Amino acid sequence: MTEHDVLSRRTFAKLASGLVIAPSIAPRFLESLRGAGGQGGWPRYGQAMVVDFLASPGPFNTPINVEALTPEMVANVLSSGITALNLTIGGNTPEQVFQSMARWERDLDRHSGALMKVRTVADLEVAKRQKKLGLIYGFQDGVGIGDDLSRVALYHAFGLRIVQLTYNVRNMFGDGCLQPENGGLTPLGRPLVERLNAQGITVDTAHCGMRTTMDAIEHSTKPIAISHSGCRAVADRPRSKPDDILKRMADKGGVIGIYLMPFLSMSGQPSSDDLVKHVEHAVNVCGEDHVGIGSDLSITPHVVNAEYMRVHRTFVEGRIKAGIAAPGEDPAVPMFVTDLNTPRRMERIAEKLLARGYSESRVEKIIGGNFVRLMRETWGV
Known about the structure:
With about 375 residues, the chain is an alpha/beta fold. The protein is built from 13 helices and eleven strands.
């Protein structure tokens, strides 16, 4: 990391005092932080709609939990240049779902100068104009809906805009990518897809099994997202999708977000070169209008030390014991791309693609434009 990638603790302290103690002077601190670290980067990054289709401003893919965002996390949000992200709302019951939403509503209120809730594409445009990070509420599992599909409208009213049908294993809607039977959509899964289409919620199949993914593509009347995945032809991992699924997804207008996870390669911790291989393969199979980024990471960089590795081992070993860890989740391998461990990772990706000869317009699509188009088509607002 460079000195521009993570802001100093002194700046964090200023941010904290500006945001929490003296809101009237907070804008001066906020404006000084927005886009920090971008000097000398791609000039059009600041004008692009930058969307990470699975990420968080707080801890993510770790057992570490915080009651509220820290000043450091908010500072990294502001320096990232990211316009919006798909934020995971957890919970297996309505009560748990609303507890998760309430936690983020508190952060939205506390850090209103840095964060805003996104319900419409117009809100995305406001977030871009005001240089805030837009939070798009999404589920990574349909279990919080359960067998009462009327909850779809209820959750939509509170801001839910993306629903992944199942997470790795089987639920009442379909099979996840680790379910060996590889069943498709269930009798309840098909009406759920219909209800999501009608309500204006994006259908997501990132962790779904192959048959469930293809069934969702075919059954949906709107394009779907594969929010955070990869290309199985490049690295044969369970969550990554084969070419036939990618092609059919694209034929119906969908978008795949390439993740920044160990699954980009078949061994060790991947680099940005591995990410580019997946992006280029997806572009070749799907076309430039159907590829994006879904990092599956926190905006705040990982600081790898002995304590970090202890926590990481505990986290991965817990997932393995619960049967939800995918092959490639390794207690000894941190879950990020080595040279993209920075709040400015989306800009770094853009620069990497430009160096490969991609046009600026194609790069703008990949770092956000394609997902903006998908949201417009699936939300209807």
